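Annotated sample (chain length 129).
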Amino acid sequence: MKSKVMRIDPDPSERVFGPYWSRPIAFDPAELHATILRQLDASADKGDFKAYMVQVFGDRAEPSDGMFEIAFNRKTGRACAIYEAASDIKKRNVPKDTSAATDPIWVRAVSPQSAANAFFQALIDQCDD
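Output written by the structure step:
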């Protein structure tokens, strides 16, 4: 069953229930989760990846449920991403390998936003299996 991808940044005047996510925010690729960094180490084009974080919400009135961490390579159209639950994000002072909620998933994308959309769909597809 295919899921409908929710729009990003819904109108603040609407009561919106998710999932939906923020626009991608760039950050230092060295700060990517260890599981993504291991995936990139095996990639010949590892130096071409940029890092992005996307906050995920289930309800606009509530704090973030978690985030997608995305490594995106615009030249090749490839992205590797994980989902981290909010309870895991708060534990950032523990070793990074212990906080990943999902295994890394590779997707095709044309932008960081399309990578977030494709990653979300890949997670839904995995649940259908």
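Annotation: The longest strand covers residues 50-59.
Annotation: Confidence is low (pLDDT under 50) at residues 1-7, 91-100.
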